[in-house]
Specification:
By secondary structure, this protein is an alpha/beta fold. It has 9 helices and 13 strands. It is globular and about 65 Å long.
């Protein structure tokens, strides 16, 4: 090979990858050399969007094409990543993205109605794999008045647990400038269930982007299989967004039952006063977490999510 270099995976489409030498947005296609297996990983995809890789090419960088793609030879160690099981019965896991500066979890109080257990699973996963996370409530123009108490309760629950909660509206532009500023200079994941307005929000951040169309596919991977899983976009204001399809399920990966409570920040704090250690916070006498739930100091909804995760683990085993 005539040249070697380092780059970041910005898209995975079929058997091809798109690379860029960030912060430069110089896209070029690449393929994997043989079977790259990451040590200790059970994921179906050995390489994910956001991964930093080394590559080789037999032609100069500017001549790399689908006919002469670069070859990915190794994957650098990750600083963090987000991984999930796709369904309750699936034993396969999939890495959503790697090397993230922050994950923005897009949610709505209504339109569609929020599912707290789903949100809590994502938050636990971010805690496990060291991904800083912010919750973004979109469409607040639709429900701020009609669901005022629910909105206030949501802030109380999640800010009380230690999470930042931003209110935005892709339609009116409220909060969009603050979100754009938070993304500047960072690689940020945008994720959430279908219908929360994630694509509209990305377009509000940068009108030149259209995540639903996938312009990269047309220009660089024409004629190839174009089912897009996850994709990175550059923001004209600075920084990069990793967009994900609307998620339907989010199963926990590589997490033992006795460890789950450690990743609920408010439960971890209270558990220092439990009579027994370890404590599952389910049946033990003198459990400080259960006492905090009964006193209203820990959200019953969050505790209920935790109990659901304990049961969920049984489905996988």
């Amino acid at each position: 090979m005539t040249i070697k270099g380092e780059a970041t995976i910005v898209k995975h489409t079929g058997s091809h990858y798109l690379l860029a030498q960030l912060p430069e947005w110089n896209l070029f296609p690449a393929v994997l050399r043989g079977k790259i297996r990451l040590k200790g990983s059970s994921a179906t995809n050995p390489v994910a969007v956001g991964d930093k890789v080394t590559f080789g090419s037999e032609v100069p960088l500017e001549q790399i094409s689908l006919e002469n793609p670069a070859v990915i030879t190794s994957v650098s160690p990750r600083k963090n990543y987000i991984i999930r099981k796709s369904t309750n019965l699936s034993r396969q896991s999939h890495i959503i993205a790697a090397n993230l500066d922050r994950a923005f979890i897009i949610a709505t109080i209504d339109y569609p109605e929020i599912k707290l257990p789903f949100l809590d699973r994502i938050l636990v996963t971010c805690e496990v794999y060291n991904v800083p996370v912010t919750i973004v409530l979109n469409k607040v123009d639709l429900y701020r008045e009609s669901h005022k108490e629910m909105l206030e309760a949501f802030h109380e629950i999640y800010e009380g647990a230690g999470y930042e909660v931003m209110e935005v509206s892709a339609l009116t532009g409220e909060g969009v400038d603050a979100l754009r500023e938070a993304c500047k200079g960072n690689v940020s994941l945008f994720s959430g269930v279908s219908g929360v307005g994630k694509s509209s929000l990305i377009k509000a951040l940068d009108p030149s982007l259209d995540p639903r169309v996938g312009e990269i596919s047309d220009v660089h991977l024409q004629g190839k299989h174009t089912t897009t899983f996850y994709e990175m976009y550059p923001l004209s204001s600075g920084g990069f967004i990793v967009d994900t399809p609307g998620l339907r399920g989010f199963g926990l990966v590589d997490l033992k039952k006795e460890e789950i409570a450690l990743y609920f920040p408010e439960m971890l704090k209270a558990s220092a006063d439990c009579r027994f250690s370890p404590c599952t916070h389910t049946h033990e006498p003198g459990c400080a977490v259960k006492e905090a739930v009964e006193a209203g100091e820990i959200s019953y909804d969050r505790y209920s999510s935790y109990i659901g995760m304990l049961d969920e683990e049984g489905k996988y085993r």
